[in-house]
Structure formats: C-alpha cells, structure tokens
Amino acid sequence: MLVAIFRNFFALFFLSTLTNFGQVPDNTLSIELGVLTFPLERPFTISVTIPNAEKRVSVSFPDINGFDKKGISTSVAPAEIDGKTVTSQIITQTYQARATGRFRLLPFTIAIDGESIYSDGATLVVQPSESTTAPQNNTLALAEAASGNAAFLSLRTSQSTIYAGEGVALTLSFFVSDNYPYELSFTALDRQLQAITKRIRPANSWEENMAITELKPIPVLIRGKKFREYRIFQSVFFPLSNQNLKLPAVSLHLARPKPVIGPPTSQPETVVFTSRPMAIVVKPLPAHPLSGRVPVGSFQLEEGLERQEVNVGQSVRYTFTITGEGNIATLPAPALVNQVPDFDVFPPEERHTVVQNGNQVTGHKTFTYFIVPHQNGLISLANHFQWIYFDPRTARYDTIQPHVDLLVGGKKTTTGTMVLIPGTQADADAPAANSLYTGIEAMDSTQQPVSISTLVRSIANVLILVMLLGILVVFFKK
Quick one: 301 exposed, middle or buried, by C-beta within 10 A (0-12, 13-18, 19+)? Predict the structure, then answer.
C-alpha cells in the first residue's frame, strides 16, 4: 500500500516538474501596429506574430470605424532559439481609410488557439493624399478610347518616366459603357491572361503582383460617360536595369451571345478588343559611388533598443526597421561602418511585410541585431550603422542613421550627462580605465544571482532521492 502511494506521488510530482520546464516564456504572441500617421492613399496594418507556428492560423482582426478591410497577407520569419530554428508566422491585416481625419482604434483582444493577446489601441491620423505621379496621358488615352468606343481594352501605367529600381504599376482593364447594346462574357480568361501577361511583363524586373480573384465591375466616369471597369491584371514592377520598358498591344477575346435589344443571333460570336502599345522611359540613377547598388524609394527609419543602459558583456537587442514605399522585399541590411573592438555586432535576423495597394508597394523590413559591448563608455550607434538609398521624389541620395545611444557601465543623469557606476572605472588617464576587469577588487563575490530553474531542479532532485530511499525502506521492511 505504501509503495503504491509513493509511486503515485512520485509520478505526479515528476509530471508537474516536466510541465513547468516545458513552458517557454519567449514563445508568446505579439501585436504590431503600422505607422499611425499616414496619407489617405496608404493603408494601415495590424500584424500578429505567432511563434513556432507550423500551420496556417485563422485570426479575427478588429474593425476600425472609417476603414475598410482590404486583405490579409502572411509571411514567415525564421529565428534561432537554443540552437534550434523556430519559424514564426506574421499575419497582417490591411485597412484602407475612407477619408482624412483622426480615427480611434479601440482596445482589442485577439485569441489564437486558446491564447489571448491584448492591445491598447491607438489614434490614427489620416492625412490628405500625396501628389500623384500618374502621367497625364493615361487620362487622355482613356478619354480618347471612350469617346469613340462603348467598350475597349486599356493597358495603362502609373508613371511614364521612372528611375531604374523605382516601381511602376501596370493595370490591364476592360471598360464597357452602361448603355452598351450587347451582353459580353469572358471566355477562357485564365488561358488568355497567361498569354497576355507573358507579353507585357517587363524583362529583368522584380514583380509584386496584386492577386485578382474575382471580376467585379467598378463604376467609373469618363468625360461624363458612365462605364464599368473590369480589372484583369495589376502588378508593380521594379526594373533592375536602365533599359526602357516597351509594352506591346495585347488582345482580349470575349463572347457576345446576343444583343440586349433586338432579335437574338443564331449563335454567339467572338469579338476582339485590343489595347494600345505603351513605352516607359527608365532613367539611370545620378552619378554616385554606389549607383546601381542602393535601394530606390521613399523610406523612413523606425528603431528600437531593448534597453539603453547595459554592463560590459551583456547583450542587447537593437531593431533597425525601414518603412516606406519601394521594393520592400529586396531591401539590404544597413552597412556596418567604423567597426571597432569595443563591441560585437552579430548578423541580423530579417523579416518583412509587403502591402500591395493598387499602384504602390509599401511595407517595412526589420533587421534585429544583438550587440555585446566589451568596454565601458557611450556607444553612438549613428557612427556604426548607415543605410543609403535614392529617393526618386527628390532625385537625391540620402543616408539613414540611428538616433539612439548605448551607455555601457553607467547611467544618464537628468541633464543628459553620462555618469559611470562607482567602482567600474578608474582614473581616465589610466590605460586600463575601460578594461573588463576594472573595479574587480570592489566586487562582492559572495552575492551570486539565483537561477530559479537551477533551484527548482535541485529541489526536485532532492525530493526524488528521498522518495527512492522511502520506497527502498518500505520494500525491505516487508
């Protein structure tokens, strides 16, 4: 009887101990809000990071008053934890504002697989639209086509002149007026679209495609005439060379079964609509030592430092996030300059979110570094990280640098001056002033940090040993 009691008690204790050790504190959900101030044409995003997710997870995102949900995208971010590669899913919901103004994102909770995560919400500021770069000849071409045709196929671009590496959107649409006298239907559209896109896709270009899953008519007004637009294809291309883009004319075959008014025809007939050819001028970047090797777009820096005050030998996480409009997926990591032996910078972990919104590709790409300092002092990250890009709006090269500093072995006062912790730095003129062993004689080696996991493991081992001894005593007494 006593043996059975000891055995059951031992099993329960052992299982509860394994349960405690099986919990991974870092394996938690997180919510990330997009930029809170943005122009009307740019979307707002809410991202949920799900660590160690092997299958697609369904997430219910909140509604925002004044915004429309536009779609959900999923990306993955591999990370190495305890020598093992853990893949996290990043699920992003895109919202599009209906008007300018200030909007309140109320606090919300997202539940995933029985686990909930809370967000305090935020205030979103939607600014007026930025000046568009769409060429005027697009509008003129549509007006000319609409004046002489009740139905036509249009291939148009967001810009007629771009820099190499700058994005240009291609849109293929079929327009039909509301008073068109025939019924039209798309036949074998998938097969036709494959042949069309093969011809109009620019060579040597990176593509960000906007998937069109259904043909929904969009009411448009061209020179006072009502049309319905059916968007068939839409992508943003980033040319990788200075060669001009030549887009040939393409044709779309539709079935015309019968007229709306009048006697029906004996059998449906096929009608062909052909677009006009177009050309896009690609300009080389201005002269620069890094011309052709820097990203092109409009970008800003969002950075974060896990903590601004650390001791020698302690690692600190630093995030360098590039956000804006451009070829987000291919953005390079910032360059490390003025490398010194005062600290180590480990290669970054990368993750990105791309949002394709009509004629623009926006999003952000995050580079997460771990920095380990070896000497006391103030480390200005601006002296060691830089990211160079070309802005097509200003036609100038620009450099993004950090604005945060890392204080090692000290703390900052209210006046902003640096004060080193007593006992960690000797006379400034001494050669060993910033040494790792500075102030070691003043340290108390009797005050050791207590590891909770080690303490629990030790107590568990003692209890297991006592249980085994108890079992042996009971067994031999029998």
Answer: middle
Of 198, 147, 163, nearest in space to 395 by CA: 163
**Rg of the Cα trace of the chain?**
31
pTM over 0.90: no
Residue 313 tokens, joined: 């030998």
Q: Which residue has the tokens 């480990």?
A: 346
Computed from CA positions of residues 308, 313, 317, 318, in that sequence, does the dihedral angle turn out positive or negative? positive
Residue 82 is which amino acid?
Answer: D
Greater confidence, 287 or 213? 287
Encoded tokens for 468: 């085994």
Measured between alpha carbons, how far is 41 from 43 in angstroms, rounded to an integer? 7
* Cα four-point dihedral sign 380, 381, 382, 384: positive
pLDDT for the residue 260? 53
pLDDT given for residue 217 in this prediction: 85
SS (H, E, C) 1-24: CHHHHHHHHHHHHHHHHHHHHHCC
Written as one letter, the residue type at 132 is: T
**Beta-strand relationship, 349-357 and 316-326:** unpaired
In the 8-state DSSP scheme, what is residue 365?
E
Nearest to 286, CA basis, from 161, 394, 395? 395
Q: Whole-angstrom Cα distance, residue 359 to residue 171?
A: 9
Q: What is the mean pLDDT of residues 82-91?
A: 69
The model's confidence at residue 80, banded by pLDDT at 50, 70 and 90, is low
Nearest to 327, CA basis, from 446, 443, 208:
208
Virtual torsion, Cα 67, 70, 75, 81, nearest 10 deg:
20
Return phi, psi of residue 459, to 5°.
-65, -40
The one-letter amino acid at 293 = R
Q: Which residue has the higher pLDDT, 438 or 127?
A: 127
- Beta-carbon neighbour count of residue 441 at 10 Å? 7
Low-confidence winner among 31-45, 202-216, 230-244, 410-424 (lowest mean pLDDT): 410-424
In contact, 326 and 361? CB cutoff 8 Å:
yes
Q: Largest Cα–Cα distance in the chain?
A: 108
Token pair of 281 as six digits: 């001028």
DSSP state of 303: E
Domains and CATH numbers, the chain: 27-130 (2.60.40), 136-283 (no CATH), 292-425 (2.60.40)
pLDDT digits (tens, 9 = 90+) for 336-392: 998 888 899 999 999 988 887 778 888 899 999 999 999 999 999 999 999 999 999
